Amino acid sequence: MKCPNCHYKSTKVLDSRPIEEGQAIRRRRECEQCGFRFTTFERIEEVPLIVVKKEGTREEFSREKLMRGLIRACEKRPVAVEDLEGLTLDIEKELRNRGVSEVLSKDIGEMVMERLSSIDEVAYVRFSSVYRQFKDINVFIDELKELIKHDEDE
């Protein structure tokens, strides 16, 4: 691999370790000419996963976009970022294991809500209000009643 500093064609690997539950490898490298050290990541090249939105438009699945939505829902809540990263990876893994090239945004939203309700109920209601586009306070109240009923059943 070329050195990003001097563009010499040969570097050596100093350290290599699995990350993202073994789905990627992080490598520390050093240029054999100038001694510059840098990090590279190796991942399996995956077939793009396309999300079909409500209005019929399509866009490539973005782990980062999903994570941003989760962080927004969990703002000022006692939820660890690691839990959200795990949830994001779990959802992406489940989607890719379906073996299809397109998924509905509705399915992703349902998967998020199912998992988020067990992590933090306030974050669940926040996410749900945006995802389901609550029109007024009565819809909020209905959702809260459903959440309370679900808790009582468990």
From TrEMBL:
GO terms for biological process: negative regulation of DNA-templated transcription. It comes from the Bacteria. Keywords: ATP-binding, DNA-binding, Metal-binding, Nucleotide-binding, Repressor, Transcription, Transcription regulation, Zinc, Zinc-finger. Pfam families: ATP-cone, Zn_ribbon_NrdR. Residues 49-139 form the ATP-cone domain. One of its GO terms (molecular function) is zinc ion binding. Binds 1 zinc ion. InterPro entries: ATP-cone_dom, NrdR-like_N, RNR_NrdR-like. The keyword Nuclease does not apply. The keyword DNA-binding applies. A zinc finger (unnamed) spans 3-34. Its cofactor is Zn(2+). Belongs to the NrdR family. Negatively regulates transcription of bacterial ribonucleotide reductase nrd genes and operons by binding to NrdR-boxes. HAMAP family: NrdR (MF_00440). This is Transcriptional repressor NrdR. The lineage of its organism: Bacteria, Bacillati, Bacillota, Bacilli, Bacillales.
